[in-house]
Request: fold
Amino acid sequence: MGPDLIIADEPTTALDVTIQAQILHLLAELQSDFDMAMILITHDLGIVARVADKVQVMYAGRTVEEGNCEAVFDNPLHPYTSGLLRCIPVPGKTQPGEKLGTVPGVVPNLVGDLNGCMFRNRCEFATESARNF
Reply:
């Protein structure tokens, strides 16, 4: 009896696209051959879009959005998820040389009392009361 779960933490980081494809193929084979679930931890949203069924978006160590990958990518509900998606080129839509989006603001200090939404100081929708929460 083999393991039930593969946890792959940034398995393709700093690899060229050929090696990335080989690693992802190997992980998919292992998952299929041994009928295992897989948690793929990555900052590469292109890889997430290609291989994931479900996605969990985290900010400052907390889940801000999760769901079916296609639904989250097509209709993000949290402003951080929307910001991330503006930062990646979209094949067929993004023109060569077109400026990509950014997530405004500064990452919060994660030391001390961490209450409320950690994205509030960077969020265009946050009210003044949320910023002072």
Remarks:
- The longest strand covers residues 62-68.
- Residues 17-33 form the longest helix (17 residues).
- The chain has a mean pLDDT of 90.
